[in-house]
Amino acid sequence: MSPMATAWRAGWARGRVELRQSFTNGADLWGHVFWPLLMVVVTYFLRDVSFGGSGFLLGTLVLPSVLGMNASMAMVSMSQHLTADREDGTLLRAKATPNGMTTYLVGKAVLVSGGLVVELAVFLVPALLVVPGVEIGLGSWPTLAWVLALGLLATLPLGAALGSVFTSTRAQGLITLPILALIGVSGVFYPVTAMPDWVQWTAQSFPVYWLGLGTRSALLPDSAVVVEIGGSWRHLETVGALGAWAVFGLLVAPVVLRRMARRESGSTVAGRREKALRRVG
Length: 281
Known about the structure:
mainly alpha; 13 helices; 0% strand
């Protein structure tokens, strides 16, 4: 077996172990459950709100959009893990072993993706019980699968690149507000067609909108397409947009990660720990 194949196999095993541990750690388990159930509450209160004269309930339109939003948040989760492990020296140890960075990144991808699948299930099952109008047919699951898989391929490398930029978890938190603003204009909680043209063009420039559109196409009836841009689910455009982001992330992330890894040393890790202790003090 080649060294790279060995690294991928070790990364897969590492990710599975970390994923199991996340369900036995109280704080991690709370994170897996709290936010999905909070989104269930949000959709519940929107279940009787009509969207204009479309004849559709806002809760029905929001439910699949939340699935896409959660998939896009894998970018944030990946960056959080990378930044935290950089701060405590885990990345430095990975760098010191042959193909250690590859093993590390594969493991984190498995951890984030596996956690996402569980969180989507925690949200989707009760949401389907309290929000009417969602239609799940034979074609729903394949569409949902390729949209989420392509979405993760587009967002995980971006998360790795972002995690390489920040040197502390405190600094990494700065990306939360811009991402929340982007979610707000991407048609997750209100159809983007009700927003100004410049907002629509801005939304279509980022993966969050396309993930929401793809998940809506999987779970909503065909008649719901009237609330979308151009009155179409635009599957080809969704593949193109998410594919372009995936290519961009896969090209940029290795470059940024290599630069970050070259700068890591025992002294830099010690310096970050000292700064963290001074902040606590």
